[in-house]
Write a structure and sequence with these properties.
15 helices; hydrolase; alpha/beta; two-stranded antiparallel sheet; single chain; 6-stranded parallel beta sheet; HAD-SF_hydro_IA; Rossmann fold; elongated
Length: about 350
């Protein structure tokens, strides 16, 4: 076939394609553009674009939504019309524009209790000794007369042992279970135990301690200020009896400002296990990094907050001896010496 015939054949094939006649893909064996041809095409396109007026350029674009064009025009003159923005927000956010609001980087604060928001006004050893004697006296008054003479000392020892074991295992051994196990250990038959009597004995054991807790200096003012600023507040504490812990919260006057008040005895997990924070995250619909965990213990409060990815504040109003061996390995995001320092810190993080 001559060159002229070849050109006529290609022209005929192109006419056939444009007229709507079927043609197999790549039937003409078309080759992709070479790099030189592509550069030439782009050069011509740029030259043509440079010569277009603004009206010609807009006319050459695909039709746009009229509201989008109006907003684009207004951008050059000033702020876009608020009603147009609202309608556009509805389009882009599935009609939920009314729910869109600025979200604080801090969604809530989780406090420890002892030596953070509250402190004992008497030595704990003294309080446990008095409580144990009262509890044993009550149990004997109900007919448990064959308890060993040294049972009150054993009760204090059992509490300390249970707290140590709970801390090692990160699972709470409750005060009620501890008393039951102690009685069985000293030979008292389980069949003779009355659940209500044991429950009452535990309450009496903790009674002197319950009334010895008092708010830390500035704690009430701090919670009132943060609560008034709109921050949800929670207390999460390692404590062996939830019913006693809830009474302590009431005695100290903290509950008014708290959205969540949780003890390890209620969920069986102890800080720093991350599971204990799940209830707060679910209730507040918050991400872990939106929480600030505040407490006096590097091991429990700071490490617990870091375990879930929260911001952490170490309180050093009443330093813990065990923290001295942890300062090199557990680094909080901030350290405060007084509770009054916390609001300004939270403001910087928001």
């Amino acid at each position: 076939m001559t060159e002229k015939q070849t050109g006529q054949a290609n022209s005929s094939s192109a006419d056939s394609s444009l007229s709507g006649q079927d043609e197999e893909p790549n039937a003409r064996g078309m080759e992709p553009l070479t790099p030189q041809e592509l550069d030439e095409f782009l050069r011509r396109a740029r030259e043509r674009g440079a010569g277009l007026t603004q009206e010609e350029a807009r006319a050459s674009m695909a039709p746009a939504d009229s509201e989008l064009e109006d907003v684009a025009q207004n951008q050059g003159e000033g702020a876009a019309d608020s009603s147009a923005v609202a309608r556009l927000s509805g389009q882009f956010f599935s009609g939920k524009s009314a729910q869109i609001r600025p979200r604080k980087l801090v969604q809530g604060l989780v406090f420890d209790f002892d030596n953070t928001l509250a402190r004992l006004n008497k030595p704990l050893d003294e309080l446990m000794k008095t409580g144990a004697q009262t509890a044993v006296q009550y149990m004997r008054s109900t007919g448990m007369t064959d308890l060993p003479d040294e049972i009150s000392e054993h009760l204090v020892e059992a509490r300390i042992f249970a707290e140590t074991k709970s801390d090692d295992e990160q699972e709470e051994h409750t005060a009620d279970d501890t008393l039951s196990f102690l009685l069985q250990f000293v030979g008292y038959p389980a069949s003779r135990m009355n659940e209500e009597v044991l429950r009452r004995a535990v309450d009496l054991f903790y009674a002197p301690e319950m009334t010895a807790w008092e708010p830390m200096p500035g704690a009430i003012e701090l919670l009132r200020q943060l609560h008034g600023a709109g921050f949800p507040l929670a207390v999460i504490a390692n404590y062996a009896s939830d019913r006693i812990f809830q009474r302590i919260i009431d005695y100290t006057g903290l509950r008014t400002y708290l959205d969540v008040c949780l003890s390890s005895a209620a969920v069986e997990w102890r800080k720093p296990e991350k599971e204990i924070y799940a209830a707060v995250l679910d209730r507040w619909d918050a991400e872990p990094y939106e929480l600030v965990c505040v407490g006096d213990s590097l091991k429990h409060d700071v490490a617990g907050g870091q375990e879930i990815g929260a911001l952490t504040v170490h309180c050093r109003m009443i330093p813990l001896a065990e923290d001295q061996r942890l300062v090199a390995s557990i680094k909080p995001d901030a350290v405060i010496e007084e509770l009054s320092e916390l609001p300004a810190l939270i403001e910087t993080w928001c």
